[in-house]
Design brief:
The protein is an alpha+beta fold. 28% of the residues lie in helices and 30% in strands. The protein is built from four helices and ten strands, in the order H-H-H-H-E-E-E-E-E-E-E-E-E-E.
């Protein structure tokens, strides 16, 4: 096989893997929001048949479709783009550090990366980086169990009105409680954050 044919075959395999991951992600998001294909099709102006094909990896959404889907699910469009995993990695089991999905700035001063291999499953892991002095604008309450481990820095976390100052090595867990946060230090805080079930 010549180099041009080899490159074409490699690109074809990469596109197929990307299509499969996207189809699984969209199905997981739809199920997490308890939406039917019909409800989504009505909101984004596409047919139920086309959405079904996307969820089965037969059709690929356009950039416009992805923007509409991201808006509908309340996620950054970057969630749908995945960096290519190394050839020695099973992308459904292992996520290499250089291949994490960037979730962007979900709130001012907060940057997130998805550590879980996919959006499906019983729980989700994120790497959250809190900028110095950043704080959440409002309280957030999710019907999920949440837990975290402070890798570095300090973070003030308020859970149902009770404030806790967390430092490197501290951890926490709560369920269905109102939470807000503030980085009180002059350095960024890095936290591994887990949610079960995943909430988007």
């Amino acid at each position: 096989m010549d180099s041009a044919s080899s490159a074409k075959e490699s690109l074809s395999r990469a596109l197929e893997r990307g299509s499969q991951r996207l189809s699984r992600d969209l199905r997981a998001l739809r199920q997490a929001k308890s939406l039917t294909l019909a409800q989504i099709s009505e909101r984004i102006g596409r047919s139920v048949g086309w959405l079904s094909q996307v969820e089965r990896g037969i059709s690929m959404p356009t950039l416009v479709d992805l923007r509409r889907l991201a808006d509908l699910f309340g996620v950054p469009i970057s969630l749908f783009y995945t960096r290519e995993q190394p050839a020695d990695t099973d992308g459904e089991i292992v996520v290499r550090a250089r291949a994490r999905r960037y979730l962007g700035h979900t709130e001012p001063g907060l940057v997130e990366e998805l550590l879980s291999p996919s959006l499906g499953g019983a729980f989700e892991m994120r790497r959250r980086v809190f900028a110095p002095g950043a704080e959440s604008a409002t309280q957030t309450r999710r019907e999920a169990e949440e837990a975290g481990f402070v890798l570095s820095g300090r973070l003030l976390i308020e859970i149902d009105g009770v404030a806790q100052e967390l430092e490197t090595g501290d951890s926490f867990r709560f369920k269905g409680k109102a939470v807000r946060w503030r980085n009180t230090a002059e350095t960024e805080a890095v936290v591994i954050w887990v949610m079960s079930p995943p909430v988007y």
